[in-house]
Design brief:
alpha/beta; Glutaredoxin; 2 domains; three-stranded parallel beta sheet; 7 strands; about 15% strand
Length: about 220
């Protein structure tokens, strides 16, 4: 059983009140960042992107479906994948129920992936989602928006030093996780408790800057 300190109701309330101050500051900071994000400049779309949909090939403009706004979630489901990314799947669980609410606000929400449309629709049926999903296969849409890189572009990252933010985020996530998973091309290649994965040589080399594995 996990050990945890025991206190009185008064001690809990005092610490909770202090924590609430930090939570409110975090909320205010989040609101400020959201405002700045909304104020980022718009960039004209000049390419004629095409997408495969259940109604046939459509342009990016067609995907708006007559509404003034379009939200596209880039779902990790590459051409060789047999199933969608588990993390993206978890996110899609929360996105799908929002579709009718966003439509009522003049906004279309959909998923986009590089896998063939048949794979996407089969996986959507399996998951029971009521959200449109389009295939961007064959277009430069994912690359132009920064979601696809060549092996040559990734080589400095894969062969060089691990960026500090990657290591920090990995350590933070594993220290707080009861159970953790590492994905490769959409499949789970490592799993275990956070503590176990922190000691895994393969994970250390990939995310924690360790020279112990694959050198």
């Amino acid at each position: 059983m996990t050990e945890h300190r025991i206190g009185t109701q008064e001690e809990w309330q005092a610490e909770r009140d202090e924590l609430l101050k930090e939570e409110k500051e975090l909320t205010r900071r989040g609101d400020e960042l959201a405002r700045k994000r909304r104020e980022l400049p718009w960039v004209p779309v000049e390419k004629d992107y095409r997408f495969e949909t259940e109604e046939g090939t459509k342009t990016l403009a067609d995907l708006f479906d007559g509404r003034s706004q379009l939200l596209v979630y880039h779902f990790m489901f590459g051409p060789p994948y047999e199933a969608g990314c588990p993390v993206c799947s978890s996110i899609a669980d929360t996105l799908a129920p929002q579709v009718p609410h966003l439509k009522a606000r003049d906004t279309t929400l959909l998923l986009a992936s590089r896998a063939p449309l048949a794979k996407l629709i089969a996986y959507r049926k399996r998951m029971g989602w009521g959200i449109d999903w389009v295939s961007s296969s064959g277009s430069e849409f994912n690359r132009d928006l920064g979601f696809l890189y060549t092996e040559e572009e990734l080589k400095p990252f894969l062969e060089g030093e691990i960026p500090p933010t990657v290591e920090q985020n990995a350590r933070m996530a594993l220290r707080s996780a009861d159970r953790a998973y590492v994905l490769e091309t959409g499949s789970v290649v490592l799993s275990g408790t956070g503590a176990e994965l922190l000691e895994d040589d393969q994970l250390k080399a990939a995310y924690l800057g360790s020279p112990l594995y694959g050198k």
